[in-house]
């Protein structure tokens, strides 16, 4: 598998760079300049598509819908001036800063 660890960070930077781009040449720019309500609508639509694909769709379909949702979520963060690093920090805080390997391999009781 290729190294995708920085993919969302890179995509977020590209999205930020579209804030002042022409909406004629960039879908991202047209979303950002179309206003918050349009972005929120897209996030809602994409989330619904993830739910539908998650329920009964092919794995490839769910993969595509999840990618669409990630992209639109990053557009929302950019529109609200929330750095994507703040999300990583919050996840890191929940995960804990110590004993990461232990947590990851921790055995859970069967469901
Ligand atoms: N990851 C994405 C990405 N994922 C989805 N989409 C677009 O999101 C749209 C969602 O499709 P839909 O069918 O739901 O909606 P639509 O009818 O096309 O659009 P709406 O009128 O409903 O808004 C499509 O036009 C996709 O092309 C994306 N557009 C751009 N990116 C990334 O953003 C970068 C910048 O792209 P520009 O937008 O061209 O600047 C690109 O290099 C990509 O990496």
Automatic annotation (TrEMBL):
Lineage: superkingdom: Bacteria
Metabolic or biological pathway, per its Swiss-Prot or TrEMBL entry: Amino-acid biosynthesis; L-histidine biosynthesis; L-histidine from 5-phospho-alpha-D-ribose 1-diphosphate: step 2/9
UniProt cross-references to CDD domains, sorted A to Z: NTP-PPase_HisIE_like
EC number: 3.6.1.31
Keyword Ribosomal protein: no
Any Pfam family matching the protein: PRA-PH
Catalyzed reaction equations: 1-(5-phospho-beta-D-ribosyl)-ATP + H2O = 1-(5-phospho-beta-D-ribosyl)-5'-AMP + diphosphate + H(+)
Keywords: Amino-acid biosynthesis, ATP-binding, Cytoplasm, Histidine biosynthesis, Hydrolase, Nucleotide-binding
A single GO molecular function term of this UniProt record: phosphoribosyl-ATP diphosphatase activity
Principal location class: cytoplasm
Annotated compartments: Cytoplasm
InterPro entries (UniProt xref): HisE, PRib-ATP_PPHydrolase-like
PANTHER family attached to this UniProt entry: HISTIDINE BIOSYNTHESIS BIFUNCTIONAL PROTEIN (PTHR42945), HISTIDINE BIOSYNTHESIS BIFUNCTIONAL PROTEIN HISIE (PTHR42945:SF9)
NCBIfam families in the cross-refs: histidine_hisI, PRK00400.1-3, PRK00400.1-5
Similarity-based family: Belongs to the PRA-PH family.
Official protein name in the record: Phosphoribosyl-ATP pyrophosphatase
Organism of origin: Trichlorobacter ammonificans
């Amino acid at each position: 598998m290729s190294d995708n660890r920085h993919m969302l960070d890179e995509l977020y930077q590209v999205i930020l760079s579209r804030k002042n781009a022409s909406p004629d040449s960039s879908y991202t720019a047209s979303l950002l300049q179309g206003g918050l309500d349009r972005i929120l609508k897209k996030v809602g639509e994409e989330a619904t598509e993830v739910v539908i694909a998650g329920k009964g769709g092919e794995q490839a379909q769910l993969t595509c819908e999840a990618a669409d949702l990630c992209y639109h979520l990053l557009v929302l963060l950019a529109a609200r001036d929330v750095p994507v690093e703040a999300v990583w920090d919050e996840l890191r805080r929940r995960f804990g800063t110590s004993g990461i390997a232990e947590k990851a391999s921790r055995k859970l009781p069967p469901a």
